[in-house]
Amino acid sequence: MQPYIIRSYGDVNLHIAQFLKGHGCFGSYMFKFKKLDTQECHDCQAPIDDPEYGISMLITLLLRRRSTR
């Protein structure tokens, strides 16, 4: 985390910090602390909702949007 904080460009906000650490609204994180009954994505029911899954879905959606233009 330290390299992201001390760099001379861009900002690290709450959402980026949570993504980098795997905290926040991810199903895997919420499941770990017994806030959810399952780790799955609440949008598409993928088995595990974690930062890696989130970024792969973002890339998929961006590519799909680009191909429809």
Task: Kindly describe this structure.
With 69 residues, the protein is mainly α. The protein is built from 4 helices and no strands. It has helices at residues 2-6, 14-21, 27-32, 51-67. It is flat.
Summary?
With 69 residues, the chain is an all-alpha fold. The chain is built from 4 helices and no strands.
Key terms for this structure?
69 residues, mainly alpha, 4 helices
How are the SSEs ordered, and which strands pair?
Elements: H1 2-6, H2 14-21, H3 27-32, H4 51-67
The count of DSSP E runs of length 2 or more, i.e. the number of strands, is: 0
Strand content range: under 5%
Total of helices = 4
For the report, how would you describe the main beta sheet? Answer: none
Helix content: 40-55%
Distance between the termini: 37 Å
Task: Write down the overall mean pLDDT.
Answer: 88
Sequence stretches where pLDDT stays below 50 over 5 or more residues: none
